[in-house]
Amino acid sequence: MSAVMAVIGQWIRRLGFLLRRGAWEEELRQEMEAHRAQMGDPAGFGNTLRLREEAQDAWGWTWLDDLLRDTRFAWRTLRHTPGFALTAVITLALGIGVNIGMFSFVNGLLLRPLYDDDVVIVSGARDLSYATYRDVQEGTTDVFAQLAAGSTEFLGVDAGNGARQALVHSGTANYFQVFGAPPAYGRGFTSEEERPGAGIRVAIISYQLWEQLGADATILGRVIRINGDQFTVVGVARKGFQGVSIPGPDVWLPLGARESNVTLVGRLRPGTSIEQAAAAVATVGRRLDRAFPTADKTYSLEVDRPGNRLLFMSGTRRGVLNGLALLLMLMPGIVLLVACLNLADLLLARGHVRRQELAVRASLGGGRLRLTRQLLTEGLLLALGGGAIGLWISTWATRSLVASVPPLLPVAVTLPDVSIDWRVLLGTIAFTLVATLIFGAGPALTLTGRAAAADLKRQAGDEPPRRGGVRIGNMLVAAQIALSLLLLACGGLFMMS
To answer: What is the mean pLDDT of residues 264-282?
Structure first.
């Protein structure tokens, strides 16, 4: 415990030094000068500048001081070459932005949870009817706070913006309560509307469909046609609500309006584990097997805590979805790689112009590691600028793309939310760091591996021997051309399909 308190005290002391560093350094300087003046032999006191630096190392963080110095120097260096800096930032912004945009889509499609951990899916070996749902509901009241049922299908919908196929979900009255997502406007369904055979034709439309209809405040009470039948709009779902699948429905109907086999979804009671729910559901399944025995199938009811469920892949394994995410990220990754190779070539060319500067710094004691770190810091500043602009570009472009997709699709669906969250921010940081290593490490190691004495002896107009640099540059150009041709081929195949 004492060791932990000592470490905490040390961190507090170092943070305090950083917060009042200027005043602390001035106090230290004055104290050293006073002691030096009191000595009979001032020279015997030692080098005050070196002593102050040693004291600063003891009170602060040397690595942080080095990072700040490298950052300031990198900023000054890039300011002297604004054309290069602007070109590099724009190149990285496009490469990183494309990857952020696709990652935002993958995040909304596969990574961002549709609901919290208390929501579970109940499935069985045979198709489940409304009567089975009621049996399960009555036998599991001690584990489920809410248990709802529903089914999704494609139906013809005409909401006044043209008839088209759309995903329509028929659900019980408590369906929205399971997800804790009551309608944004209007009301949900009633128990009477849920009853099989009720035939009460009311509907709740998605927030996206409401926006496509002009976000009309008088939408409640409007009549829409579904498979030729008239339904009255009684509510608008919460923005981003999709239910249990991606893509989400555009319209919700009460289960009594369309009878079909159902899927069960429930919300666990506080403090209830999924194992307790599975045991309770299995007990109901065994009771149903005894009451309604069949030779081919049992009920075998199970409880799952699902991740995101693609509508047409809900029965597949997680590995298939991970493969889909990898495939979606492949082409943007190639775009970023091409951008990094392009920038690496520019950095090599710029490094040959700076050869004497690097040689001077090496001759003054700057080791290869120190110079490499400085060049990587310059690359990191460029990548941070490109990442920030790329994040802004991707946000605007992704939202515009998602908004433009629904009218082009042959069916009406609710697309996933692609807004920025902590996963996208972490992805942006990762893309930025990876880009820095790809385009910065190679040129930095190549340029700092030069012989300092040879570069110092050359005159300003001399052209250095560039066999190695030319060879590396040619390889970078060849890689860019090959990857670009690959992108063109993949893009062409995608458009044709």
So the answer is: 92
